[in-house]
Amino acid sequence: MKGAHAVLHDPTGLMDAELPLDRAPHEALVTAVLARKDPDLAPCDYEQIALQLTGHARAVAADVRRLVAVLPRSDGRGALAEVILREADGRLSAPLKGTACCVQNRARLVRALYTRLDRLTEPVPAAM
Predict the structure, then answer these.
(1) Measured on CA atoms in the order 34, 35, 36, 42, is the torsion positive or negative?
(2) 38 or 32: which leads in pLDDT
(3) Is residue 20 scored above 90 in pLDDT?
(4) Quick one: pLDDT band at residue 40, thresholds 50, 70, 90?
(5) Can you tell me the distance from the alpha carbon of 109 to that of 128, in angstroms, rounded to the nearest whole number?
(6) 1: which residues sit within 8 A by CB, 6+ positions away?
(7) Is 3 left (phi over 0), alpha (psi -120 to 50) or beta?
(8) Is the separation of the CB atoms in 125 and 76 below 8 Å?
(9) Looking at residue 13, what is its pLDDT?
(10) Are the beta carbons of 46 and 103 closer than 8 angstroms?
(11) Measured between alpha carbons, how far is 18 from 117 in angstroms, rounded to an integer?
(12) What pLDDT is stored for residue 16 in this prediction?
């Protein structure tokens, strides 16, 4: 069926939670995309890379949201994560373009989300 799609109802986010992130290949893709000023690729290649990075950014953002949800309100890491998540929502709602700029913006977003994810998962230093 051409043009058909299914809508999945997953209010608890279990589908995302059961799949571990495949981090290494996506970080390699981010590094490759950001390493070159203006890679000479066809627009359809840029679109495929942007789709890949967009899907991964959504998955990382879902993990960040889950971690933020269990933090105490007094933990400043949650507030910083909320800022990144709002920015991610804005960037991910922008339409994809078959350009190097679009791909590099998605790569920067994935990098920022992973930075925030790492800070949320590292142990909190003990107060003195």
Answers:
(1) negative
(2) 32
(3) no
(4) confident
(5) 34
(6) none
(7) left
(8) no
(9) 56
(10) yes
(11) 17
(12) 55
Q: How far is residue 122's CA from residue 38's CA, in Å, rounded to a whole number?
A: 35
Distance, in Å, from the CA atom of 56 to the CA atom of 121, rounded to the nearest integer, reads 18
Kindly state the average pLDDT of the residues 69-79.
87
Length of the chain: 128
Q: What is the mean pLDDT of residues 26-51?
A: 90
3-state DSSP of the chain: CCCCCCCCCCCCCHHHHCCCCCHHHHHHHHHHHHHCCCCCCCHHHHHHHHHHHHHHHHHHHHHHHHHHHHCCCCCHHHHHHHHHHHHHHHHHHCCCCCCHHHHHHHHHHHHHHHHHHHHHHCCCCCCC
Which of residues 92 and 122 earns the better pLDDT score? Answer: 92
CA atoms of 78 and 64, how far apart (whole Å): 9
